[in-house]
């Protein structure tokens, strides 16, 4: 773990208005609650838009379900009573801690059993007072409870997926009684972690994105699932991990032929998840697909892989889970709601299998800050946020060289011509040099300066954030130039 | 109230996949919780995008704050203990009801005092059993409580504005210690209504949009606030209401000169709110700006007006509040947090005044369904959702005439060329006539049919939802034609 880089990212993020917290700061803050400032919200909106576009291009439709559900729903889903963290208590100062955090080292098992934790109690001391822990592991419920109406109990959802399953019968009608179909949700979820940590990576209130693909169990190897067949992905199967091998880059088709997973639809879902992260601006070389071992896998999951991303501050980190949940959820909710949850196709009653892609949106926001914040020391020049142009809060900054002689008016006119197609801002305060540096810190890839030549010759200066090169171009060509640069059709140095 | 129209809208909305509920339906549903289906979510996203664009064009920046805040915050804001509904209890069956709903007629005072309600108890009977009410008004807290960590109490926010104020010191830094500046939030809020009703108009979980403009109290009449001066708006001042006059249409400048409101910034904010609703697709002739009477106004508000919209089902309905909140909130939070909340400009400590625009996003979604659902009886042809093209879930439907001879491939190619600029869907199932009707019900304003001429002559048929007219146009011209139609530069009948 690179603690120095993490501290730099946190300071940068707070100072520039990406993320503030823990919130509410003026009241001392509550651990695990954060606020997106203006630049952070633009960044997060771009990430959400990339998720939305990628899922919709692959035939998923978005829905929005309530964030609060009654008790019965969470009994059916298995969350109520089972979704908890282990706790130890200090016998001296009576402080309580999340057991795995104080008893285990960071790299140890992700989900230890209570028995394993108990064994470690004698070796550890209370981090507050140095006292010994009571020889007991208790359980802390992660569900956040609330009151509905005069006498009902509800729980804030700990994930979105359960709420997505519930309108299943409505979906079958909407999708005209056909399979397969897909739905996704981007929305808030809540987990009452005892000790939230790692900044945006483990919080109590977060935004989740989860996509569910409903498929006929007999058609999991349909030709439809060939669209990513030729894409090369970094697969790290359980077998490779056991043999201490590195991930292997191969096509989705090769991976299927080698039986790394046992259905075409699973490979398709895996590739789709990878593409979502790619479209959010995460570099391919920072990603790998890691298969869960038999011990990690949830009991209902026929197969489970994660998208992992290599962070500068925390190393390889789980970012997204891809699960074949089979008919588990629909069967559970059918049992608890006493409704028949199937689809009737050509007289055949089918309970679809569900392939799931589940991840948080706050983590990708952190990924971009972590990977692309290029901190410079005073002697090396200014720091730059080198986020890809497709994701940057603003794509173009427009500056008049001087605050007089009609330059501001002309610059605003240039802005009006660009703002429908790009995320643009206008800045006239401070020297041009200062404005360039400020924009580079905000992550703005291109800046346009309108000067005296702009009035007579219809030209302006365009500056590239990453190379710091500048070129003089025609104002009338700006739309095309920027579109080409932002879509990587042209690189700056080749610009004429 | 037009109950028939309401029932038609509800049935349409559920059947076509706009809004489902109360959710979770298979578990019997909780009053006041709804699910947006695929078409409803597209519609709601378009509404949120219109809000975002309008605020950002007027110099507001978006932020995202937590939906849960500790007790202290809600004490400071005045919500805790004061944000409650009056309740009556039946002395016979012990059922409880929201007092104003069962004791008063719909058109009576919006916020009656407990004394007024008490007086009406003898005249009313329990709606369940016909029994008499106990002679007592109790109070039901609208705040939804939850647990944070091991021992903290939090509340789900009943509105977003309070959470927006809290990072005030961060804003002053972000906006480089200058006034004015604006921030807005679009996000969830929660109110534990005793009896949620009127479909999406009064729910327990809702999306709110609130914008806050921070202004130097000495500069509320700055020239900056002239941008809407020449816009004509339907003003209905308290004075006009008292004199039983109709709203008057006049420019914002005339209204200011006539002292309908006492600062230029207030008129600017009012006009901005009106423009948000206009940009969400609400027709000008269905709106009016109504000033609050002295009794309705919150004690801290220097002035308060509402945007009201004339619904087909409920008549004139409050949709948005515009308030001059002065320095009330910053002063309260300074007191409770013991932090100094001011901005230091040129050595002067300024506690800004805050102008607020507050509304729900679910209500505009309902407005569009209510105003634009054109229900037809079987003999009159099919029903049409005549939502403006800027807001419609999809803007363009693409159909191959036949499912063979390369027409599907060609149609998909047409779609690929359009989907970057427009919200497009593809449909090849059923007769062309059926596909047109289905698209009209979904609200899709334009449909393109690719036929055998498309292969040789590069032409296709474009059909207008509202006039049902069809024209033959060049495929290569489609981008421009659609852009012109959707931005109302060209009307369909003038299309060549």
Written overview of the protein:
The structure is a homodimer of 496-residue chains. Chain A is 30% helix and 26% strand. Chain A is built from 16 helices and 26 strands. Chain A has a 9-stranded mixed beta sheet. Chain A has a 5-stranded mixed beta sheet with strand order 23-22-24-25-26, with helices on both faces. In chain A, a hairpin with a 3-residue loop joins strand 8 and strand 9. The longest helix of chain A has 20 residues, at 38-57. Chain A is globular and about 75 Å long. The two termini of chain A are 44 Å apart. The mean pLDDT of chain A is 93. At the A-B interface, strand 2, helix 2, strand 4, strand 8 and strand 9 of A face strand 2, helix 2, strand 4, strand 8 and strand 9 of B.
Keywords:
homodimer; 496 residues; alpha+beta; 9-stranded mixed sheet; 26 strands; globular
In order across it, which strands form the biggest sheet of chain A? Answer: 3-10-11-19-16-15-14-12-13
Number of helices of chain A: 16
User: From the structure provided, what is the oligomeric state, counting identical versus distinct chains?
Assistant: homodimer
Uncertain regions spanning at least 5 consecutive residues of chain A: none
- Beta-strand percent range of chain A: 25-35%
Strand count, sense and barrel status of the largest sheet of chain A are: 9 strands, mixed
Give the helix level of chain A as a range of percent. Answer: 25-40%
> What is the largest interface, and how many residues per chain?
A-B, 68 and 67 residues
Task: Give the topology.
2 copies of one chain form a homodimer.
Chain A: H1 3-15, E1 19-20, E2 35-36, H2 38-57, E3 60-62, E4 68-70, H3 71-77, E5 84-89, E6 96-98, H4 99-103, H5 114-120, E7 138-141, E8 144-148, E9 152-156, H6 161-165, H7 168-174, E10 181-190, E11 205-215, E12 232-236, H8 238-242, E13 248-251, H9 252-257, H10 264-279, E14 287-291, E15 303-311, E16 315-324, H11 328-337, E17 343-345, E18 348-350, E19 353-360, H12 362-372, E20 373-374, E21 384-385, E22 396-400, H13 407-418, E23 424-426, H14 432-442, E24 446-450, H15 452-457, E25 459-464, E26 470-474, H16 478-486
Parallel strand pairs in A: 3-10, 12-14, 22-23, 22-24
Antiparallel strand pairs in A: 1-2, 4-9, 5-6, 5-7, 8-9, 10-11, 11-19, 12-13, 14-15, 15-16, 16-19, 17-18, 20-21, 24-25, 25-26
Helix pairs in contact in A: 2-10, 3-11
């Amino acid at each position: 773990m690179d603690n120095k880089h993490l501290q730099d990212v946190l300071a940068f993020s707070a100072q520039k208005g990406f993320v503030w917290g823990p919130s509410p700061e003026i009241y001392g803050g509550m651990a695990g609650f954060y606020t997106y400032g203006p630049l952070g919200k633009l960044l997060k909106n771009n990430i959400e838009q990339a998720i939305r576009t990628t899922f919709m291009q692959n035939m998923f439709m978005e829905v929005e379900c309530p964030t609060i559900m009654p008790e019965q729903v969470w009994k059916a889903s298995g969350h109520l009573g089972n979704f908890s963290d282990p706790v130890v208590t200090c016998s001296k100062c009576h402080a309580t801690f999340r057991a795995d955090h104080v008893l285990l080292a960071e790299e140890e098992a992700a989900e230890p059993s209570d028995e394993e934790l108990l064994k470690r109690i004698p070796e550890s001391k209370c981090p507050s007072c140095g006292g010994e822990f009571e020889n007991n592991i208790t359980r802390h419920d992660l569900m956040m409870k609330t009151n509905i109406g005069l006498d009902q109990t509800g729980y804030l959802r700990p994930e979105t997926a359960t709420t997505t399953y519930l309108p299943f019968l409505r979906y079958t009608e909407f999708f005209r009684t056909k399979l397969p179909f897909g739905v996704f949700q981007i929305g808030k979820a809540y987990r009452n972690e005892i000790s939230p940590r790692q900044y945006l990576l483990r919080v109590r209130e977060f935004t989740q994105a989860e996509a569910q693909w409903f498929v006929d169990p007999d058609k999991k190897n349909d030709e439809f699932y060939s669209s990513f067949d030729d894409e090369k992905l970094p697969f790290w199967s359980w077998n490779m991990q056991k043999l201490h091998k590195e991930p292997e880059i191969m096509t989705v088709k090769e991976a299927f032929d080698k039986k790394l997973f046992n259905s075409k639809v699973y490979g398709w879902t895996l590739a789709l998840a990878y593409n979502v992260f790619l479209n959010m601006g995460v570099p391919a070389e920072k990603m790998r697909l890691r298969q869960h071992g038999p011990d990690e896998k949830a009991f209902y999951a026929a197969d489970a892989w994660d998208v992992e991303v290599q962070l500068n501050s925390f190393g390889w980190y789980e970012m997204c889970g891809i699960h074949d949940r089979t008919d588990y959820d629909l069967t559970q909710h059918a049992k608890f709601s006493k409704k028949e949850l199937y689809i009737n196709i050509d007289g055949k009653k089918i309970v679809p299998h569900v392939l799931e892609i589940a991840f948080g949106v706050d983590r990708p926001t952190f990924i971009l800050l972590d990977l692309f914040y290029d901190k410079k020391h005073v002697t090396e020049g200014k720091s730059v946020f080198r986020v890809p142009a497709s994701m940057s809060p603003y794509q173009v900054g427009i500056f008049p060289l001087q605050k007089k002689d009609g330059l501001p008016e002309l610059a605003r006119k240039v802005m009006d011509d660009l703002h429908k197609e790009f995320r643009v801002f206008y800045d006239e305060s401070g020297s041009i040099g200062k404005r360039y540096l400020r924009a580079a810190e905000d992550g703005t890839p291109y800046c346009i300066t309108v000067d005296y030549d702009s009035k007579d010759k219809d030209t302006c200066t365009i500056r590239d954030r990453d190379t710091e090169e500048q070129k003089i171009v025609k104002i009338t060509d700006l739309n095309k130039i920027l579109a080409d640069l932002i879509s990587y059709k042209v690189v700056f140095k080749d610009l004429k």
